[in-house]
Specification:
The chain is an all-alpha fold. About 75% of the residues lie in helices and about 0% in strands. The chain folds into 2 domains: about 60 residues, no CATH class; about 200 residues, no CATH class. The chain contains 14 helices and no strands.
Length: about 375
């Protein structure tokens, strides 16, 4: 089978055809794109293909989830303290009632007799003066208690960062707290001598703790031990209906004595605030519950087995009182424990156990 090659032929083109042929020759020179890719790219460039950003995220809130407007208003209403308004309004009404009653009383006294009216006016003035003095004392007590915490924070910063400014602020606070006390005269003289020496800020704080805190820590330990023994006795001999109130009163008295010893001198409000701080400190450090080591220590001493249930309960309350005293010591001490050893619960447990052993010996009949 023979194959006939094609022979070249000539074609005549019209005037428009060369331009169309030239345009067809130029089109293949462009890099063609697949149809699917071109469609995807056009969708990517189109703003309708992207999801609306405001549906998932809020530019003002950052990573926080979106909260409806009603929920936000409800949250803001929760922050509004109606209890504080209730207490304030009740106190305002009570004070107005007391003032009106006192005014009517003075008017009635003047109506009866002028001398009685002046005597009533003088007594009312004394009442107002005493109330003002109590308010001022409570305010200064709260300020002194706050200053102890500020001094402790400055001392910790001076020790950790070797900050000279914090050390100077700590020493200045210590001078202001203990300058007028006769029992701190020797320590203040030593502190004044150290100010002339050249040393690091941390060393100044350590020397101040050695010179000032040692006698105060010894006295604080005696206060805690004495209160723990007293609480043990009260729990053992007091009626069950009164032991809680008596133990609470003893603990509040101990807190006030410790704060006064370290320079706080709180009033009633200051003592209540210190009690709340001690409760928070014990909750954070886990000191509200007796550990297994404490119970085993008591049982190992034979206290629970030899004594009655009331004496055993008194021993447990005494140990809890010692825990509260140690927490108050940590909060009221203007300097942290650096060169001195922190008192441990075992030291006060020995005092409680001695009380228990003595009570057991007294209960044993003589042969």
């Amino acid at each position: 089978m023979s194959h006939d090659p094609r022979k070249p032929k000539a074609f005549r083109l019209s005037q428009d055809e060369p331009e169309q042929a030239a345009s067809r020759k130029e089109e293949p020179q462009e890099t063609p794109r697949p149809r699917a890719k071109t469609k995807t790219a056009s969708k990517a460039r189109s703003p309708r293909a992207l999801p609306a950003p405001e549906i998932e995220f809020d530019e003002d809130s950052g990573d926080q989830p979106l909260v409806p407007a009603v929920a936000r208003d409800h949250t803001m209403q929760k922050r509004f303290k109606w209890g504080a308004i209730l207490v304030s309004a009740a106190l305002g009404l009570a004070s107005m009632w007391a003032g009106l009653a006192a005014t009517r009383l003075i008017e009635d006294l003047f109506a009866r007799n002028e001398v009685l009216g002046w005597i009533g006016s003088g007594l009312l003035g004394l009442v107002l003066l005493a109330a003002l003095a109590i308010i001022v004392r409570e305010i200064f007590g709260l300020m002194r208690l706050k200053k102890l915490g500020t001094t402790q924070a400055d001392a910790a910063r001076a020790i950790s960062a070797d900050d000279a400014r914090a050390a100077e602020a700590t020493l200045s606070d210590l001078r202001a707290i203990y300058s007028g006390r006769a029992d701190m005269r020797w320590g203040m003289a030593q502190l004044k001598d150290h100010t002339k020496a050249i040393m690091d800020p941390a060393d100044r704080i350590r020397l101040a703790e050695r010179d000032l805190m040692v006698p105060l820590d010894d006295e604080a330990s005696r206060i805690i031990a004495r209160t723990a023994r007293r609480v043990s006795v009260i729990t053992a001999v007091a009626p069950a209906a009164l032991d809680i109130a008596l133990v609470g009163a003893q603990n509040l008295t101990m807190l006030r004595e410790l704060a006064t010893l370290y320079g706080g001198r709180p009033g009633t409000l200051g003592t209540m605030k210190l009690a709340r701080m001690v409760a928070g400190h014990l909750a954070v450090t886990g000191g509200l519950a007796l550990s297994d080591s404490v119970i085993s220590h008591l049982i190992g001493k034979g206290l629970i087995g030899r004594l009655s249930a009331r004496f055993g309960e008194g021993a447990v309350n005494g140990i809890m009182t010692a825990r509260i005293g140690l927490a108050a010591m940590d909060l009221c001490r203007p300097l942290p424990f650096l060169t001195q050893d922190r008192p441990g619960l075992s030291d006060f447990m020995r005092e409680v156990v001695k009380f228990g052993d003595g009570a057991a010996a007294e209960d044993k009949p003589e042969k």
